[in-house]
Amino acid sequence: MHGPRVDRVIFWVALPLIAGVSVPLVLFPVKGEALLSAAFGWLTRVLGWAYLWFTIAAFALLVYYALGKYGNVRFGGPDAKPEFSLVSWIAMIFCAGIGASVLYWGTIEWVYYYTNPPFGLEPRSREATEWAATYGLFHWGFTAWAIYCIPTLPLAYLFWNRGRPILRMSAACEGVIGERATRSFPGKVIDMFFMFGLLGGVGTSIGLSTPMISAGLSELLGVARGFWLDAAVVITLGVIFGVSVYTGLQRGIRVLSGVNLWLTIGLLAFVFLAGPTLFIIDTFTNSIGLLVQNFVKMSFYLEPVAKAESIISAASEGKSGLASADTFSEQWTIFYWAWWIAFAPFMGLFVARISRGRTIRELIGAELIGGSLGCWLFFAVLGNTGLFLQLEGSQDLTGLVARNMTPEAIITTVVAVGDRVIPFAVPLLLVFVTLGIIFAATTLDSASYILASVATREQAEVREPARWHRCFWAIVLSSVSLSLMFVGGTESLRAVQSASLIVALPLIAVLVLMTLSFIRWLKRDHGS
Question: Which residue segment(s) compose the domain that 51 sits in?
Answer without folding.
Answer: 8-292+328-526
